[in-house]
Amino acid sequence: MSLTIRIILIIISTLTLLYAIRKMRKSQMELSDVIFWVLSSAGLVILSVFPRIATFFAELLGIYSDLNFIYISIIFIILLKLFSLSIEVSKLKVKLRNLIQEYAIRDNEKINDKRM
To answer: Which burial class, exposed, middle or buried, applies to 6 when counting CB atoms under 10 A from its CB (0-12, 13-18, 19+)?
Structure first.
């Protein structure tokens, strides 16, 4: 991995880390989401500072280069995060639908009580 790419990875990872911490301090992100971004950023910094780790795993998995290993790792992690967010959105949709139905039933009961 070239020095330029390593420096770019370190800078972007550090900026992502600082941005996530800033959003958490302003209460715009939950702690669990910040932990994900902090760990991801820290992992990229470690791979940038110690490129032999990426080279070792790339060779172990039969991947052509260490940079390809990093890209594949990032894509895999993002897919896992996307899957967990999809599950969370599905749960929230069910809760929202239940709340709407409950509200409609209570509103209908109030209307019927006023008629009597």
So the answer is: middle
CA-closest candidate to residue 70, choices 87, 84, 56: 56
Other C-beta atoms closer than 10 Å to the C-beta of 41 total: 22
pLDDT tens profile 43-74: 888 888 898 999 999 999 999 888 899 889 99
The residues, any chain, with a CB within 8 Å of residue 47's CB and separated by 6 or more, are 9, 53, 54, 70
Kindly state the DSSP code that residue 74 receives in the 8-state scheme.
Answer: H
Rounded Cα gap, residues 57 and 44, in angstroms:
14
Statement: residue 22 has pLDDT above 90: no
> What are the domain boundaries of the chain?
3-115
